[in-house]
TrEMBL record:
Superkingdom classification of source: Eukaryota
Protein name: DJC25 protein
Localization annotation: Membrane
Keyword terms: Chaperone, Membrane, Transmembrane, Transmembrane helix
CC per GO annotation: endoplasmic reticulum membrane
GO biological process, one term: protein folding
PANTHER family: DNAJ HOMOLOG SUBFAMILY C MEMBER 25 (PTHR44176:SF1)
Transmembrane parts of this sequence: 40-58, 135-158
Amino acid sequence: LQDEETRKDYDYMLDHPEEYYRHYYHYYSRRLAPKVDVRIVILVTVCAISMFQFFSWWSSYNEAINYLATVPKYRIQATEIARQQGLLNKNKEKGKNRRSKEEIREEEEEIIKDIIKNKIDIKGGYQKPKIYDILLFQILLAPFYLCKYVVWYCWWIYCFSIKGQEYGVEEKLYIIRRYMKMSQSQFDSLEEHQKETFLERQLWIRENYEVYKREQEEELKKKMAMDPRWKRYRRWMKNEGPGRLTFIDD
């Protein structure tokens, strides 16, 4: 009875002994109530999710590097750079009498992967993870991002809606990305020649984008019509698919 709340419950029980169900409820609710601060639970959960995000992104990034190391185009370029820098020759000279061929091969593989990491800018879902992209830092930096967006939005309205300035390349690509409903990472993963095509066709203009969108939809329909897998699927939907009823005579 050291707690004031429990003393109130005790006094109420003495005054109303017939309400035993209520007394049981208050007793067990206080006894079984969590003793840990909810804020600590939330913080630990956010940290756990952030760690999982970071290591998951690192795993995806390493998978992308391992894949690029097997692509002849990038492997040949990385090997040539390593030879020019004397890394592979240096390895072989040092490893003649000290290491096995397997050890030399593994070290050469690591050198090639390191060169690919430094020379190739991977974008999209497999890009190199940044600590500021994890959930914990996103929550901490949310006020900063909000203020930054408000300032940017006011600048956009002032420059292009009030003053009527022409869009720059970055602004045009931003409008195109919004029309396509793509995230920044998805848009960055596109090839440069695709972005140049967007600019050449002036897709930041809504009417031009609608024409482009219809063209892409028609092209997709043609590809699906010629694809053997889609033909088999349509044939199956027509003959065996859901909604078809058959009656078999006994």
